[in-house]
Structures are given as structure tokens and as C-alpha cells.
Amino acid sequence: MQQTWTGILILLMLLASGCGTMTDVERTAVGAGLGVDLDNEDNVIFYAQFNRPVNVQETGANEAQSEVFTGRGKTPSQAARNITLRIPHLPLWSHADIFVLGERLARTDLYYMADFLTRNRNVRKNSFIVVAYQASPYEIFNGECPFALCTSRGIINILRTQEEQF
């Protein structure tokens, strides 16, 4: 009888090992930067810059190391969901270090985005928030930034350097 209970206990311990929600690293997309703006119909446009998996020996210095995806919706969550439906990997939003607000959104309603950012558990609370002036977040994420793998990391490096100097 004792051996039966011991066997059941060992079986239960194996089943409750905690690997049920494990995500394979090769099936994830690491977010570098997030951006939000409004279109002419006041729909939310959500931009996400993801780091592309790179093999250092195979890539050249001029090759883009990131990819930008765009989604639209009535809410930021719906727009982000539309991006999730189009990419083949599970996005890791919480790795994004910068949040770019579009100029139209910044002039229209910042409270809406402040509410979204404070309630969303996938957005870091210590991320940089910048406002795009005379450019969309898409244009910023697709721009060139020397000495950085992607523009969002380059912007963060510029901001940190300026903070240290002044």
C-alpha cells in the first residue's frame, strides 16, 4: 500500500514540474521598440520593431537587424493583436525599451495612452517614452542609426549618452 502511494506521489511530482507553459526561444520574437499613432479615422496604429535572429558570421554590416510590423485597430490592444496574428513567432513585448508616440496621438489624447501604458503588464515601467515630431514611429523604426543593431537601441544609446553628459 505504501509503495502505491509513493508511486502516485512521484507521478504527481513529475506532472507538476512547471514546464507546461514553457516557450521555446526559437519560437519567440524579441521586441526592441513599440510605437503608437492615430490614423485619419482615429484608429490606433501600433508599430512593433522586433530584433531579427542573426548569425554573426553570415550577416553583413549593412544588413538590417530588425523588422517593423504594423497593426490597426480601435484600441492599442486590438492593434497589437493584429500584429500577433501576422507574425510566425510569439512576440515578447516586455523586452521593448522604448515607446514612440506619434505626433497626432500626442496632440490628440495622451491620457488614453497613459492609461494603456500603466495598465499593460507587457510594457516595462522603466521604458523610455519619446514623441515623434514630423515623422511617424514607422519612419523612426526604419531609419538608420550608426553603430546600433536597430534604431530603437540606437535612440536609447543616444538618450543615455546625453543624460550622462548633461
Number of H/I helices: 6
What does the largest sheet look like? 6 strands, mixed
Uncertain runs: none
Strand content: 15-25%
SSE order, as H and E?
HEEEHEEHHEHH
* Rg over alpha carbons: 21 Å
State the domain count.
1
Q: What is the first-to-last residue Cα distance?
A: 74 Å
Structural class estimated from helices and strands: alpha/beta
Instruction: Please tell me what the overall shape is.
Output: elongated
Strand element count: 6
Helix proportion of residues, in percent? 25-40%
State the oligomer: single chain
Structural summary, described in words:
This protein has helices at residues 2-15, 76-86, 103-108, 110-119, 137-141, 151-165, and strands at residues 28-38, 44-51, 66-73, 90-92, 98-101, 128-131. By secondary structure, it is of the alpha/beta class. It has one domain (28-165). Strands 1, 2, 3, 4, 5 and 6 form a 6-stranded mixed beta sheet that branches. The mean pLDDT is 84.
Report a brief summary of the structure.
This protein is α/β, with parallel strands linked by helices and 166 residues long.
Helix and strand layout, with pairings?
Blueprint: H1 2-15, E1 28-38, E2 44-51, E3 66-73, H2 76-86, E4 90-92, E5 98-101, H3 103-108, H4 110-119, E6 128-131, H5 137-141, H6 151-165
Parallel strand pairs: 1-4, 1-5, 5-6
Antiparallel strand pairs: 1-2, 2-3
How would you describe this structure in keywords?
single chain, 166 residues, alpha/beta, 6-stranded mixed sheet, 37% helix
